[in-house]
Design a protein that fits this description.
Helices cover 18% and strands 44% of the residues. The protein is of the alpha+beta class. Strands 1, 2, 3, 4, 5, 6, 7, 8 and 9 form a 9-stranded mixed sheet that branches.
Amino acid sequence: MGNPVVHFEIVGKDAAALKKFYKSAFDWQIGESGSGAGAQNYALVRPNGGTGIDGGIGDMGGYEGSEGHVTFYVGVTDINAALKKVEDLGGRRIFGPDPVPGGPTIALFADPEDNTVGLVEV
């Protein structure tokens, strides 16, 4: 069985504007802002439809040199092994692994075409 997509993330320069946009566009429930694992003003997002995956919206905070990203996170049982495999296949590590306060360990990598993808240890 493959590894599932378990989380999405929308990170940019203005978290408040992004939250307002996505709440209005899709009627998502957006929690209180916090910080952790590099992002600031980060809030968890829950779709109201009862299906789909949860996510997060925040601003760039600790992601120095990045303009932002929209990405998905793949659940893996061993984040270090997954990062090594990604690197062996031509990807590159961007961030982490880093434990989210009170949450899982996450990492970001770029695929061979420089698309940002996340990993979360499950």
